[in-house]
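Subgroup meeting minutes
Present: P.N., E.W., G.H.
Scribe: E.W.

1. P.N. recapped why we're keeping a running log of single-chain structure predictions: easier to compare across weeks, and new members can see raw inputs and outputs side by side.
2. G.H. added today's entry (144 aa).
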Amino acid sequence: MAVLQVITDNAVEQKFLSYPGKAKRKLTYLRKLILEAAKESGEVTAIEETLKWNEPSYIAKKGSTIRMDWKEKNPDQYAIYFKCTSKLVPAFKEVYGDLFTYEGNRAIVFDMDQKIPEQALKDCISAALRYHRVKQLPQLGLSG
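Output recorded in log:
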């Protein structure tokens, strides 16, 4: 497995510290899955961790930006966001159906007490991190 270079903006750590306890734990877990998916992809060698729209965001050289956040207006949920004009969420819906809860073509939403289908989510994340390499493949190369 290749070594993954993580380039982190210090503002991201401050953002994580600003979340309430349970939300911080859930988003830290999503961060872990993003970094694991990047390492396991075999294609991503560097990932940039920064803030976009004041949300922790992740981008790889040939990928599409992934963001995540928890919002006070929906305190029992958190989400992972993808570029809404990409083929990502439509492909996830096609491959994984109701395994996930979606917000339009832009997000997968989780309830705080929900168990995340880890491997399926990592496959979605991997497709996003390699998006410009897989966007021409049927269902982005996802097999469900």
